């Protein structure tokens, strides 16, 4: 992205930061690696991409923590339901973030631990 990126290009890159979390469906830890790579590449060129990339990373790291704990809870029986719920929550919240970002609106992920400021 050049220093003369249009607002539309910035929104697209910010949207890709959120959308890249779905790479976790194919690549182990892709839900973190995808947003991390895009954010790292574009954060210096756009405040919007920097902000949205951090949000996407914080949420995906949080979801990974929740999934790890739920996987451990499978032993006592409630983990399966938690894993299903977390999968649905991840899908719904990422789609909401993508739509809001493309519309130029601010979206804060619920359940997100603020790791990156």
TrEMBL record:
The keyword Membrane applies. This is Tic20 family protein. It is found in: Membrane. Its main location: membrane. The lineage of its organism: Bacteria, Pseudomonadati, Bacteroidota, Bacteroidia, Marinilabiliales. The chain crosses the membrane at residues 12-38, 65-98. It comes from Marinifilum flexuosum. It comes from the Bacteria. The keyword Membrane applies. Coiled coil: none annotated. It is a multi-pass membrane protein. Keywords: Membrane, Transmembrane, Transmembrane helix.
